[in-house]
Each structure stands twice: as C-alpha cells, then as structure tokens.
Amino acid sequence: MTKNEYLEFCGTIAAAVSDTPFENDAESVVIRHRDTRKWFALVMELNGKTIVNLKCEPAEADFLRSAYEGVVPAYHMNKVHWNTVFLDSDVPEDEIVRMTMNSFKLTVKKPVRHKSGSPPD
Questions:
Q1: What is the pTM of this model?
Q2: What is the mean pLDDT of the chain?
Q3: For residue 18, what pLDDT is reported?
Q4: Are 87 and 1 in contact (CB under 8 A)?
Q5: Does residue 59 contact residue 81 with C-beta atoms inside 8 Å?
Q6: How far apart are CA 66 and CA 36, in angstroms?
Q7: What CA–CA distances, in Å, run from 120 to 31, 107, 110, 115?
Q8: Euclidean distance between CA atoms 28 and 75, whole angstroms
Q9: Residue 118: per-residue pLDDT
Q10: Predicted pLDDT of residue 101
Q11: What value does the CA radius of gyration of the chain take, rounded to a whole number of Å?
C-alpha cells in the first residue's frame, strides 16, 4: 500500500479529517476524528519508508509485532498503546485497513458515565 492509497482510504472514513499540523513538515499527515480532533493515525516518512502510527490494545500490539516484520513499537509515541506499521512491508492491505479502523474505534470519544455506571437520561 502506498502513502497516497492509504490517505485515499482514510478519506473514505466519514468522521475523519486529515491535516499537516507540523511546522516545516508538509510530508507528515495526521488523521483525526472530525468532532474531537483526536488523532488515530499519523503518517510519516522514516528512513525513506512510509510509516503509519496506529493505536492498539497492548496485547494485540504485541501479537501484531510478533506476526509481522512491518509492525514495530511506535516511533515517537507511547510504545505500549501505539504501533508503527510500514506500509510497504509484509502487512497485508486488509490488515492495515483493519488496524486503522481499530485505532479509530479506540480513540473515539467515550460517553460520560455517572456513578451508577449508566449514561444520563
């Protein structure tokens, strides 16, 4: 999967927007939730390779790192909760899509819970 293909896919996620927030870096792209602006994907170049950082549950993060050479602890992010995925690697395209949607779900705004454990009426 190329960077352009990945960004095109992210553009199909209805509740997502992308931007280039880093001064003097027009290459890195952040994919965010439209409403909360929380990141769920960060696309960058690392040593001439395109990578994307994606949020993941810790146990799954470890599993994915052992299953694919192209998945490593996150570059410049929390290494327990985020993985770096090399887009041009052994990770299948459908798995990159699944991991992206999982990251999207993990970073969605959680409903406020009251002491009773249920949302307000």
A1: 0.87
A2: 91
A3: 94
A4: yes
A5: no
A6: 32
A7: 30, 22, 13, 10
A8: 13
A9: 58
A10: 97
A11: 15
In the block, residue with structure tokens 């792209």: 29
Count of CB atoms within 10 A of residue 25's CB?
Answer: 11
Q: For residue range 14-54, list pLDDT tens digits in order.
A: 999 999 888 888 889 999 999 999 999 999 999 999 999 99
Long-range contacts of 65-70 (CB under 8 A, 24+ apart): 68/95
6 contact partners, CB below 8 Å, separation of at least 6: 43, 50, 52, 87, 96
pLDDT tens for each residue of 71-116? 999 988 889 999 999 999 999 999 999 999 999 999 987 777 766 6
Separation of alpha carbons 44 and 67, rounded Å: 22
Pairing of strands 29-33, 16-19: antiparallel
Q: And the tokens for 74?
A: 């996150």
DSSP of the chain: --HHHHHHHHTT-TTEEEE--STT-SS-EEEEETTT--EEEEEEEETTEEEEEEE--HHHHHHHHHH-TTEEEPTTS-TTTEEEEESSSSS-HHHHHHHHHHHHHHTSPPPP--TTSS---
Contact between 43 and 52 under an 8 Å Cβ cutoff? The reply is yes
